[in-house]
Design goal:
Helix content: 25-40%
Strand order of the largest sheet: 1-2-3
Radius of gyration: 15 Å
Structural class: alpha/beta
Strand content: 15-25%
Length: about 70
C-alpha cells in the first residue's frame, strides 16, 4: 500500500447548453456550484434564447466561486 501518497483528483469540466430554459437554468447552475467536488471550469452555452435565460445565467455566474465561461 502507498500510505500517505497524495493522489491528484481528476479534472472535471461541465458544459451546460441552454435554449429558452429560464425556468430551469438557475436551479441547474446553482446545483453545479453547490457540489462538494467543484469542476475545474463551467461552460454555459445559450443558443439565442428569447426568454431572459442569458440574463439569469450571467447573474448566477457572477457569484460562482470557480472559473466559468458563458457563450451567448
Amino acid at each position: 500500500m502507498n500510505a500517505g501518497k497524495n493522489y491528484n483528483q481528476p479534472e472535471v469540466f461541465v458544459l451546460v447548453p441552454s435554449y429558452n430554459h429560464a425556468p430551469f437554468v438557475e436551479k441547474c447552475l446553482k446545483s453545479i456550484i453547490k457540489q462538494t467536488f467543484s469542476p475545474k471550469k463551467l461552460l454555459v452555452i445559450d443558443d439565442g434564447s428569447q426568454d431572459g435565460s442569458p440574463q439569469t445565467i450571467e447573474k448566477v455566474l457572477n457569484d460562482c466561486p470557480f472559473r466559468t465561461r458563458f457563450f451567448d
